[in-house]
Amino acid sequence: MLDPQPRFEELITALKERDYRLTPQRVELVRLIAASEGHPSAAQLHARVKTRFPTMSHATVYKTLALLKDMNQVLEIDLRDDSHYDGNHPAPHPHLVCMRCNKIADGDMELAPAAVKALEEHSGYQIIRSQITFYGLCPECRQSG
Amino acid sequence: MLDPQPRFEELITALKERDYRLTPQRVELVRLIAASEGHPSAAQLHARVKTRFPTMSHATVYKTLALLKDMNQVLEIDLRDDSHYDGNHPAPHPHLVCMRCNKIADGDMELAPAAVKALEEHSGYQIIRSQITFYGLCPECRQSG
DNA sequence: ATAATTACGGATAATGATTATCTATAAATA
DNA sequence: TATTTATAGATAATCATTATCCGTAATTAT
To answer: Which of B122, B61, B11 is nearest to A139 (CA)?
Structure first.
């Protein structure tokens, strides 16, 4: 696993730059986001913060995640049941979701900017963000299926 | 607007072929799906069925939608808050969602099959379906913003 | 410094979509 | 005709997310 320290400092710096307060709870959540592998959900992050801050409420987790999202420091992946978050690769990218075990993997495909531009012109929409999700079976579940 | 009758008959035929019962409530829901423009939500469909069948319950709507989904006769578009459905163009295709008024439009972009194949090989996942959603501002909201 | 303002955490409840459970009934089958 | 099965419907449960409200700590202004 990569050293989470640099990313942690990036996130802290980004919060400082915007004059957000670095409360202990917030710092701990940011620490966990930087240290996270994969794509934790809000509930999972909440559970992890609780080990050090037993009174941490859901609302605080959501509030801080919303903050980081607005700062484009965290990518939200909304799935059917809940959302998952990636604070280490906040640029939009496709995801692969296993329909059996719900594992989430990162895809490396990217949208051709020309195609997006064409879609904007054709539809009249101004595109701000995109989400591409593939549903299927992960390597493990393909076998044991 | 296109004549909904042929699509209605297609859906009815598909249900018959699989020996599902054509109850009045079910037929009415199918009729509304075939006649729908855009991408109604389960709640919207429920409200529409209720005008003719005031006792229609949510569960029945969801059950029939799940049935049609499994038959690949209805495309489900899951958004953050709820799902929307397209029973007239059930093949997966991208959607544009307005972040201001929540209007949903169809996109005409398509994924290059070679790119999907490459993603399958690279990730090890077997891809069963995909969902591409663009978030932004619709033409109307771009102006009045 | 002190007072006033603001941001934040936390508790709690509200919301709202979806699903589960159970029962009665209508349809299909034996 | 009897039996089985699918379905509708009522109702409650679940669960993620959001809203509200209050107390407190931090910041700012006086």
So the answer is: B122
Helix H segments across chain A? 5-17, 24-35, 42-52, 58-70, 113-123, 139-143
Share of chain A residues as helix, strand and coil, in percent rounded to the nearest 5: 45, 20, 35
Q: What angle do CA B125, B126, B129 make, to 5 degrees?
A: 115
Residue among A125, A130, A132 with most chain B CBs within 10 A, to mutate = A125
Shortest CA–C1' contact from B57: which nucleotide? D9
- For residue B66, the 8-state DSSP code is H
Cβ pairs bridging A and B (under 8 Å): 105
Give the residue among A50, A70, A71 at the shortest CA–CA distance from A60: A50
- A contact residues 46-85, partner B, Cβ 8 Å cutoff: 78-80, 83
CB distance from A145 to chain B under 8 Å?
Answer: no
pLDDT in tens, B11-43: 999 999 999 999 999 999 999 999 999 999 999
Residues 6+ apart with CB under 8 A from A13: none
Cα of B134 to nearest chain A Cα, Å: 4
What's the Å distance between residue B71 CA and nucleotide C20 C1'? 23
Mean pLDDT of A121-129: 95
Distance CA B114, CA B127 (A): 13
